[in-house]
Amino acid sequence: MKKNYIYILLLSVVVSLSSCFDDNETAYEGPLQVEFPLATKTVIVGSAAKVDSIKVQLIGPQQAAPLEGKFKVVEGTTAIEGTSYTFATAGKFTVAANSSFGYIVVNLPKSGSSSVLKLELEDSDKLKAASNYKKLTYNIKP
After folding, report:
1. 97 in a domain, yes or no?
2. What is the span of the domain harbouring residue 38?
3. 30/23: higher pLDDT
4. Phi and psi (nearest 5°) for 2?
5. How many domains does one find in the chain?
6. Closest Cα partner for 77 from 136, 114, 117?
7. If residue 139 lies in a helix (H) or strand (E), which one and from where to where?
8. What is the pLDDT of residue 43?
9. From start to end of 36-131, where are the E strands?
10. How would you classify the pairing of strands 86-87 and 101-108?
11. pLDDT for res 26
12. Is the dihedral of CA 45, 41, 75, 30 positive or negative?
């Protein structure tokens, strides 16, 4: 009898606790946005040329078609395009269909000095740059 009482008590506790939580299925309903998940990234080039990628994150539901985003190099950059870096696709990136991420591909030739590349996401036709996370400082180290 005592075992039955314990089982009933445990069952009632589990049922009462699970009924306290709201059944929220909160989904983002705003415009599609993109952001840099990191504010700063450092890459060490080393003795040979290197290809690196910078992750850009989609805010909103994944889309059935690819989305094209834009970025620009901003003031405060000490890296020289063509010498310190080149982009695989200058000024744009793509978030693949059914994905939450896109990548900015950076080609880094062998370099003897440190430099800083400052990037900022821009609004495009279908993607808005998230105001709080649209800037990235990319440190290039030899």
Report:
1. yes
2. 33-141
3. 30
4. -65, -35
5. 1
6. 117
7. strand 135-141
8. 96
9. 40-44, 50-59, 67-73, 86-87, 92-95, 101-108, 115-122, 128-129
10. antiparallel
11. 76
12. positive
